[in-house]
Write a structure and sequence with these properties.
3-stranded antiparallel beta sheet, 2 domains, Aminoglycoside 3'-phosphotransferase, Chain: A, domain 2, alpha+beta, Phosphorylase Kinase, domain 1, 11 strands, globular, 314 residues
């Protein structure tokens, strides 16, 4: 990995820059310090995104940055390219955003003015959707689609959750029934739902707070989807917070201060968001702590699924 990073730095004219690994999730992200400035160097997971998808992500981030949102913006290499391939690895560089994440997965939320923060998140999310709707996508723009096929079709964006190999026969039957019901529900609803470019991963770690500034990072899974899916993604890690109803109300209030949205089908999208993690973990079973994470994902989805199906028949 060291040789790849140092070779990549040459592409950006940053030979001799100091660097350290910050995150190793979908991508390996390094903080680069050079000439009194800091940057984020991303080495992308092989086979996860095409060159066209990654270039489109960078174009989108640049557009929303220039429209006033606090997001990372791409830095061109010496050649003028925003995306380079080094030893078979897709690499790009972004501006570094200071601040601390809203929180961490699996831990109690430790922030002040909790409803106030969620009101700000809702407002900024709505601004992201509004700006994205007003942006003209360049030719060849490609991003994944979190639409009905992307959630419950034969080849979902994050794999077939009903085929998770750890599922019991009962859970598999339950999830297949959910898939059938959710597909029918979405078929009825999709023409009425707000749809467009979404971040699709606004979890705690991707919401950065720097004083009074709220920033969104990691657009790696951003694409076309239901706007309610973005709201559900932010709410998902907070379902068991003691003040969850107040956080949810504040998130919606902040969002609606910028643009309207029908939140009626929220329970469906919370459930669909939960199923995506059951699919996502399938190809990551060998990673550290994956067994515990998988168990949490399946347990949560089973609970949400039973609650949803008990109240919805189709």
């Amino acid at each position: 990995m060291r040789s790849k990073v140092e070779t990549a730095l040459k592409h950006w004219g940053m030979d001799g820059a100091t660097y350290r690994l910050i995150a190793a999730r979908e991508n390996h992200v390094f903080r680069i310090d050079f000439d009194d400035s800091s940057y984020a160097l991303r080495l992308h997971r092989q086979g996860y995104r095409s060159d066209a998808e990654l270039l489109s992500e960078l174009q989108w981030m640049s557009a929303v940055f220039h429209d006033g949102l606090s997001v990372p913006t791409p830095i061109a290499s010496i050649s003028g390219d925003y995306l380079n391939v080094v030893e078979g690895i897709q690499i790009d560089m972004l501006t570094w955003l200071a601040g601390a994440p809203l929180g961490a997965a699996g831990k109690d939320l430790q922030i002040k003015d909790r409803p106030g923060q969620f009101r700000r998140i809702g407002r900024e999310m709505a601004n992201l959707h509004k700006v994205s709707d007003g942006w003209t996508q360049p030719p060849g723009f490609r991003r994944p689609a979190w639409d009905r096929p992307g959630l419950v079709g034969e080849a979902p964006v994050w794999d077939r959750f009903w085929d998770n190999p750890t599922l019991s026969n009962e859970d598999r039957e339950l999830f297949l029934e959910l898939r059938r019901v959710a597909d029918a529900e979405l078929a009825d609803l999709e023409s009425q739902l707000d749809f467009g470019l979404i971040h699709a991963d606004l979890v705690r770690e991707n919401i950065m707070i720097d004083g009074d500034k709220l920033q969104f990072i990691d657009f790696d899974d951003g694409g076309f989807g239901f706007r309610l899916f973005d709201l559900a993604t932010t709410l998902m890690p907070n379902l068991h917070e003691r003040d969850y109803p107040a956080l949810k109300a504040a998130l919606f209030e902040g969002y609606r201060s910028v643009r309207e949205i029908d939140t009626g089908p929220l329970d469906l999208f919370l459930l669909l968001r939960s199923t995506t993690y059951v699919g996502w973990i399938i190809t990551r079973m060998g990673e550290e702590e994956s067994a515990d994470r998988n168990e949490r994902f399946v347990d949560r989805t089973r609970m949400l699924c039973n609650a949803y199906l008990s109240n919805h028949t189709h």
